[in-house]
Design brief:
Elements (H helix, E strand, L loop, with lengths): L3 H6 L9 H14 L12 H8 L3 H13 L3 E4 L3 E4 L8 E7 L4 H14 L3 E7 L4 H11 L5 E4 L7 H5 L7 E5 L9 E4 L3 H10 L1 H4 L4 E5 L8 H14 L3 E4 L11 E5 L2 H13 L9 E5 L3 H5 L5 E5 L1 H14 L4 E3 L2 E4 L5
Parallel strand pairs: 3-4, 3-5, 5-6, 6-7, 7-13, 8-9, 8-10, 10-11, 11-12
Antiparallel strand pairs: 1-2, 12-14
Helix pairs in contact: 2-4, 5-13, 8-10
Length: 338
């Protein structure tokens, strides 16, 4: 009966193969030939050393590469197991996102394209729920070669993210401070929001009042609320923060600002019914740009980071395994609504 050891040892006759190459390719060949299949245990490090005569570091390095490629997984205190039979893949990535919406879709599409067809991606959604976030991280730890995570602003986040080795971790979208060096490609909310409001100040002052719809306890970044309040004070603009837009309450002379697309659509619907022209009778400002906001209602003014660029940057960082610490700029996009 042919074993994993046999498949590794038969590569000794190939002079171009180092012991590391023999180890990795031998296990891959054993999987391809179905000598060992998904879910089955691989020999322990000590057994490999005894049977092959390889150095411990060679065996450990070989297992680490196979784990990074998603072919093998390490189960705490139980050993190494075949995780995937697609041995052509070069990497297995866990992508942990808030939720799927149009701008997160922009990120994912460009991230996926950048990685190419041989990289396996598993996508998880935490919906801003720290319990779900913790459950997912506990479930996936040790099973992936790279973890790409959009974090939650929460006291437990730092502890949970410290479970992930720094060389396998990239933070994206929102930034949360962690101890030590780590990779990130994120956006910034407070300074960029204030800058967008300030650039629109002359337009906003044509109206009687600016209303920001923010539901307490929602996923809205608190930094935007701080920027909105500071703008109100600095520019002496009449403002209010309301928990939600009530359909049918659109008024002439108001600027409406919301991070929720559903609210923007309701406001536009009421404007049409009440014959209020966006940009003239009312102002409308939205966060996070997308194609539909360019087309609907004569165009909705937004300020937004470039999620397509973020997806490309994170994808490149995953493949190159190089240090990256970058904040993607936020840009004001002026259209007819304000």
């Amino acid at each position: 009966m042919i074993t994993v050891f046999d498949k590794i040892q038969e590569l000794e006759e190939m002079p171009s193969y180092s012991k590391h190459d023999q180890f990795v390719q031998g296990i891959i060949n054993a999987i391809d030939e179905r000598i060992i299949t998904k879910g089955e245990a691989l020999p322990s490090v000590n057994t490999m050393i005894k049977e092959l005569g390889f150095a411990r570091e060679t065996v450990m390095k070989g297992y680490r590469e196979l784990i990074n490629r998603g072919i093998v997984e390490s189960k705490n205190r139980l050993g190494f197991y075949v995780a995937h039979e697609d041995t052509e893949q070069t990497l297995k990535v866990a992508l942990l996102m808030y939720l799927i919406d149009s701008f997160q879709e922009q990120f994912y599409r460009n991230f996926r394209n950048e990685l190419g067809p041989n990289v396996h991606i598993d996508v998880f959604f935490h919906h801003g729920n720290i319990t779900v976030f913790e459950t997912i991280l506990n479930m996936i730890k040790g099973k992936y070669g790279m973890y790409v995570v959009s974090p939650i602003p929460h006291p437990k986040t730092k502890v949970l993210l410290n479970m992930i080795p720094r060389n396998k971790f990239i933070m994206f979208d929102r930034y949360e401070p962690l101890q030590g060096e780590f990779n990130y490609v994120t956006q910034e909310f407070e300074k960029s929001s204030y800058k967008a409001f300030a650039e629109l100040a002359s337009k906003i002052k044509h109206f009687d009042e600016m209303i920001f719809f923010h539901t307490p306890g929602s996923l809205d970044p608190v930094e935007i609320i701080k920027a909105f309040k500071k703008f109100s004070r600095d520019y002496k603009v009449n403002t209010r923060i309301l928990p939600e837009y009530v359909p049918g309450t659109a008024e002439r002379g108001k600027v409406y600002f919301s991070l929720d697309n559903a609210e923007i659509w309701k406001i536009l619907k009421d404007c049409k019914a009440l014959k209020l022209k966006p940009g003239k009778d009312v102002g409308i400002l939205s966060h996070n740009d997308e194609v539909v906001k360019e087309l609907i209602g004569g165009g909705i003014t937004t300020y937004s980071t470039d999620f397509s660029l973020m997806g490309k940057k994170v994808g490149q960082a995953v493949l190159k395994r190089e240090k990256i610490q970058e904040i993607i700029p936020t840009v004001l996009i002026r259209r007819d609504s304000l």
